[in-house]
């Protein structure tokens, strides 16, 4: 039994699921004729010795954009046609028992491009309630969050066909699969990382300021996937040559959610169940993987850092949703078509491993989610809560390549690691948060995430604090909490660990309880900090939000 299940004190030991050997999906022939292609992005000069380290795989992958005669990759129109073709091929397969492929229209990008996903399942319906009731865990794979990272979209088209009519169909006996091939259509068209209005979609998963982020949030909210995979590409940076004398040579970078307050059981499952098999799958294909690494722009700073512990990116936000949240990055951001077959092969290898592991661990994943959801609910009003954290430092050996010969050039460096965290700030965990009645914009974003929000149908005295200081009690008849008055002395409750004051919460104001599975995500949104709603001006003033330290005894209604 692995670490993640062995520690689930409330769960019984699952029966052993069937073993599924790792494999690589077979190539898929394109049936959509290529339309006009996007121009290829420049890749920069590459020495012959270095380029020789990245030969094409033995298998040849085929999508509309992978034809050797193409200058660019799959266009948006071709992508839509390819998704339709997956559905058509599935319908013509003659299998009345499924799998079934459902097209999900999620809205449009800022420039009007359709954002579409596929649900591939043994169920003949795409209704979220039926999928959740069916009992199979859902795996959500999405790609091209950054428009200049195209290999993931090509790989996801291949995987959709393999799940629909190919060799990956058996995993659907145990899991459902959501596929969003291109999360950022406008970025893909413009060959830019960001959306049309310049937002990095990767850091919009909490704020939901763009229609693209809201489309992803809808899938997360409605289908509640237990495994979420962000398929990306990483950029080869000149600064690694300048600082360390070598080129980044990993075919893939792997990482999982490491946000502070993420459940340790989610972290253990991510490592034991998924990352280790992914590394083995890469090695079996002659590919090389490591953790995500970055370094600062300063030439004198000879340190690297892993992807961090702050809840400021999709991977960490999804981890706080109690999902196994994985990021896979092939070597190729901004490369256009350079090494495209190898990059797609890397993506297919990794996502195939993830799907097969999820199928093998389906029963364990269901138990894991139920257990962690229950733990998060039970923590409301109890114990400390981490408000901020920092990565600890240690040594790590980067497997770099000589920029001319392409020979291995391992370099040992100092690294800030997300695997070891230093607590920098804690507070007593509140019961929830109060929001003033004029905070409908914040409430809408919370509801978009799937958070339960309640509205007071009567005024009430509530014990709360703002930013660590008493919220203050408005004198009777002199205005209520919505007026932001704060005058009275703090009230003290016997045995309470929380500071706080009583104040009059108006009818129509809101209560956001932490006694829900997304409690840790609520705290990120509503605690003061650069990543939350106050720091990003979704909530304009600290006076419009307060930490509830004693559950209010007041009638409330659920906000739809």
What does this structure look like?
This protein has helices at 3-6, 48-51, 76-91, 128-133, 151-165, 185-190, 211-223, 238-244, 264-284, 314-319, 340-360, 362-378, 440-449, 519-526, and strands spanning 100-108, 114-121, 138-143, 176-180, 227-234, 247-248, 252-256, 289-291, 294-295, 303-305, 324-331, 384-401, 408-428, 432-435, 454-456, 460-466, 469-470, 501-505, 510-513, 545-548, 556-558. The protein is of the alpha+beta class. It has 14 helices and 21 strands. The protein is globular. A hairpin with a 6-residue loop joins strand 12 (384-401) and strand 13 (408-428). The strands form 3 sheets. The chain has an 8-stranded mixed beta sheet, sandwiched between helices.
Number of helices: 14
Tell me the radius of gyration. 25 Å
Shape verdict:
globular
Report the β-strand fraction as a percent range: 15-25%
Q: What is the mean pLDDT?
A: 87
